[in-house]
Amino acid sequence: MQIEVKDHLDALRAEILEKVREFHAAKASEECAFRPSIDQVHYAGRVHDEDELTTLVDSSLDFWLTAGRFNEEFEMGLAEFLDIENVLTVNSGSSANLVAFSSLTSPKLLDRRIRPGDEVITLAAGFPTTVNPIIQNDAVPVFVDVQLGSYIPRIEDIEAAIGPKTRAIMMAHTMGVPFELTELRELCDRHKLWLVEDNCDALGSKYDGRHTGSFGDFATSSFYPAHHITMGEGGAVVTDSDELARIARSFRDWGRDCYCGAGENNTCGIRFNQQFGTLPYGYDHKYVYSHIGYNLKITDMQAAVGCAQLRKLPGFIETRKRNHRRLHGGLERHADKLILHEAPAKSDPSWFGYVITVRDDSPVSRPELLKKLEAAKIETRNLFCGNLLRHPAYEDLNHRVVGSLTNTDMITSNTFFIGVYPGLTDPMIDHILATFDEALA
Amino acid sequence: MAQPVRFQAAVQQLIRHTPDVVTLQLYASRRLPRFIPGQFVHLTVDDFDPASFWPESRVFSVANAVADRRSVQLTISRQGDYTGRIIDGLEQGDSVWCKGPYGDFVVDGSHGYNRAVLVAGGTGITPFGAFLDTALSTGKLPVEEATLYYGAQTEELLIYRAVADACADSVPGFRVRYFSDVAPPTRGNAIQHGRLDIAAILAEQSDIPGTAFFLSGPKPMIDAFRAHLLSQAIRPSQVLVDAWE
Question: How confident is the model at residue B156 (pLDDT cuts 50, 70, 90)?
């Protein structure tokens, strides 16, 4: 490109981005002070400033569309944050779970692969797409109960669920609370089990000083607007293993063997010089498929928003912790009626929400409490699906339950959560606590 | 293989071994993914806008372990016009674009063999350079035994001789043999006069079924050596080549 043309384009780009900043400032100036019981207190939401908007427009001016420079920057940035080698963006946290689990069924893993009928230990109290990939790959989910308060399982219960067919443990750090990762990693190593951390609710949480998502063979993240950072729709598969990363890339990218990025050719240097199965020698590597895969990639515009959000992540984490602390402090006086949110001793959660279980002997039931909160414009959410096994889609599921799911059932009937996201202000938290005081008086 | 990235790098040092062979010490502007010895990068000396398509480039094996996640060493020989542009046009302080890591020409036990025979012709030493760098820093091999057969036209073109000698002295299980078309032995491990001879190399091996043969160098050499090995009932899976189109 001629230098004069490039300079002109750079100047136009700078002018457009300046206008975007101006637009954002004008829009932000319209925001008014919070009005209790009039304005909605959301449980979650996207928090952004001009950086997200300008980065998004910057990427749109590239018009690269598929994963490009921003995606590369995001993947490297998140890998550095987690201190892990490989991050692959995908179009949702659920897709991340699908790619991660499917990758463990790869024939490339030889006798380490998960096969149909193998068992995977997981939780019924959570989000369905933590469990769905197990079912979709014809493995058998084995459910264990969780503890009320932390909503994570006990290590002893997981160990009791391990049988001759067990090949993996795949579960979520529910609401940002890390399960006991050092102990679980040790358990997995001892029994030669894969560990998949669904880290969608817990980006930035730590256990034993290490980030969640860095203990498992795979971990997953979600960047849906309700999550710690967002790109609208989006997610990531995380692994320290180069071998697993290459398999995951294949499952994400149609199942192909080739690993060229968008717009690239012959990065391996032997595109037309390999033998695969019974295909003719030198069959174009771009169209050789080593897995039955999907297309779950993101666009560079999504990644651009992710880049700006990633820059804010440390601040977001601190605000979530602060909001959680404030809510906990204010709700402690209702501990006789509510089971409050807690975490294991060695953990440092980057909380997703503040989870509350209404005690069975509380004078106010969950429906009554939720009605009062919602009337005060305070958004609430159930702990996702409660007991997954009680949902219509899972009625005929081939599965095992080890022990009872007593607490999981209690969650189904008595548990909910409210927000701690960085969009909450002090007046909003004051309003939340005042509403609880009034409802539980 | 780690997720490849595109990265800008400064030419920190440029060593001209001959008018046709240079070694570049590059320093990346960002932290790089994990490189495995034997992997390669694409290098371009053309303008590149990360928001557009990758320009014309050439592939070069990385000759060091990239232990600091920034420093990348490449040894480049003149093969045609583009490598000529690199060799004649680059100066210390210049900036280039690379992308990588790529490739699975990796010397380790993953191929199913405990012994490795490494055959390097000329600048074909570079993927083994990263292997040697790693072995030297860790003090051990990723296989039980490895022997490097390293040939070049002249003694001066045995560019990685010092690191190979150091490995032979300090890394258990590693041996090296040098070959030169013209030079007599002058220092370190002896240099044998003459070219690399795959038949002679094969005849020296005591455990052929347990050995993987890694071939790197000019394409005619690789093709001829591979054909010879396969004609001697060596299984195709035992012969690994560092070859690009």
Answer: confident
Q: Which residues of chain B approach chain A closer than 8 Å at the C-beta?
A: 1-6, 30-31, 33-34, 36, 40, 42, 47, 49-54, 59, 99, 102-103, 243-245
Encode pLDDT of A129-187 as tens digits: 999 999 999 999 999 999 999 999 999 999 999 999 999 999 999 999 999 999 999 99
* Helices of type H across chain B: 81-89, 126-138, 161-170, 198-203, 219-231
HEC assignment per residue over A221-289: EECCCCCCCCCCCCEEEEECCHHHHHHHHHHHECCECCCCCCCCCCCCCCCCCCCCCCCCCCCCHHHCE
Residues of chain A short of pLDDT 50, as ranges, are none
Strand B71-77, strand A400-401: pairing: unpaired
Point out the catalytic residue in the list A42, A173, A211, A227.
A227
Query: What confidence score (pLDDT) does residue B183 get?
Result: 62
Please check whether residue A223 is in contact with residue A234, taking contact to mean a CB–CB distance below 8 angstroms: yes
Q: What is the pLDDT of residue A264?
A: 84
Told to judge if A227 belongs to the known catalytic residues of this protein, a careful annotator would answer yes
| Residues A93, A89: Cα–Cα separation, whole Å | 9
